[in-house]
Amino acid sequence: MIKQRMSKDGLECAESTQADKTANALEIIPATEEDIPLILSFIKELADSQKLSHEVVANEALLKQTLFGDKQVAEVVIGYFQGQAVSFALFFHSYSVFHGRPGIYLEGLYVQSRYRGKGFGRSLLTYLGNLAVERGCCLLEWEVLNWNQPAIDFYKSSGAIPMDDWTTFNLTGDALERIASRG
């Protein structure tokens, strides 16, 4: 966060907070196939933090196929602080029928708990915002669990607006198989 202060001559000067300086030290790099074990560990940590560990069925072979195979369906960036991987974001392109343009859907953003509060989450969002603009996207969107108030507060402080008038639906497992077999 940049704080504004007045200098003795009355001119505004930007003053960085310690969190800004630390966040600026986060190096964000697109993941490679060699990062698959790291990506899977971040996915498991994210699921654990959201009390959803029982939902994780991803494995290294699936990640290799879907993230780095012939039909790449998502992308991952990894945040490094002082050479240590501390965060990641997994995202893919969506499409807005109303805007007639692509968007970026953020499927997962995670910062290890001991590195939270240093601006790394905001750095990842900024990175994705820049990527969305560079790619001509009209939006950056994601979901957050209703009970995760710290995440909700963080996203609101970033300027995000909750879409309270929309309800998310999904079909998985047997329900997905049933709808697919109705042909």
Features:
alpha+beta; 27% strand; disordered N terminus; five-stranded mixed β-sheet; single chain; two-stranded antiparallel sheet; globular; Aminopeptidase; 183 residues
Low-confidence stretches: 1-16
> What global shape is seen?
globular
What is the share of helical residues? Answer: 25-40%
CATH class (first level) name = Alpha Beta
Q: What is the radius of gyration?
A: 19 Å
Walkthrough of the structure:
The protein is an alpha+beta fold. It has a single domain (19-160), classed as Aminopeptidase, CATH 3.40.630.30. Helices cover 34% and strands 27% of the residues. It has helices at residues 18-24, 36-49, 60-68, 120-134, 149-157, 173-180, and strands at 2-6, 12-16, 26-30, 75-81, 84-96, 101-111, 140-142. The N and C termini lie far apart (53 Å).
Layout of helices and strands:
Layout (H helix, E strand, L loop, with lengths): L1 E5 L5 E5 L1 H7 L1 E5 L5 H14 L10 H9 L6 E7 L2 E13 L4 E11 L8 H15 L5 E3 L6 H9 L15 H8 L3
Parallel strand pairs: 6-7
Antiparallel strand pairs: 1-2, 3-4, 4-5, 5-6
